[in-house]
Amino acid sequence: MSDGHISGDEYLCEITAFLITSAKRCMGPEYMYGAGRLVQTMVLLSRLPEHVPGLKENKLLVMAREFVEADQQWWAGDKLEKFIDEMSAELLHEMKKKLDRKMQ
After folding, report:
1. DSSP result, 33-78
2. Residue whose C-alpha is closest to residue 60's, from 18, 1, 102
3. What is the per-residue pLDDT across 37-71, written as a single tens digit (0 to 9) for each?
4. Which domain holds residue 97?
């Protein structure tokens, strides 16, 4: 947008990118708590379009919701770390696509 403001969809994308990269950085001795809470936050944000008219679903947030809803033990073992790695790769892919669109 030319006036310096970003759309709700773009802002939600920025929040999603923040959460994914934060979850990745939380991988350490306390990773199950910190990263798990960030993934839970993404699940909550995935439901935002149900409450905000005109807000589109975010692919990465839906990915987090589906991951959590598919397995009650989603945080156990290396499942969470593997999922965060998958989300990080998908985030990179989405950001590259967004950059390509802006360059056109």
Report:
1. HHHHHHHHHHHHHHTGGGTSTTPPP-HHHHHHHHHHHH-TTTTSTT
2. 18
3. 889 899 989 988 888 889 999 999 999 999 999 99
4. 8-103
Residue 63: inside a domain: yes
Residue 13: burial class (beta carbons within 10 Å; 0-12, 13-18, 19+)? buried
Q: How many domains does the chain have?
A: 1
Instruction: Identify the pLDDT of residue 29.
Output: 65
Q: In this structure, is residue 75 part of a structural domain?
A: yes
Looking at the whole model, is its pTM more than 0.85?
Answer: no
Q: Identify whether the C-beta of residue 31 lies closer than 8 Å to the C-beta of residue 80.
A: yes
Give the span between the Cα atoms of 78 and 6, in whole angstroms: 36
The answer to the question of residue 89 being in a domain is yes
Residue partners of 20: CB distance under 8 A and separation at least 6: 42, 60, 84, 87, 88, 91
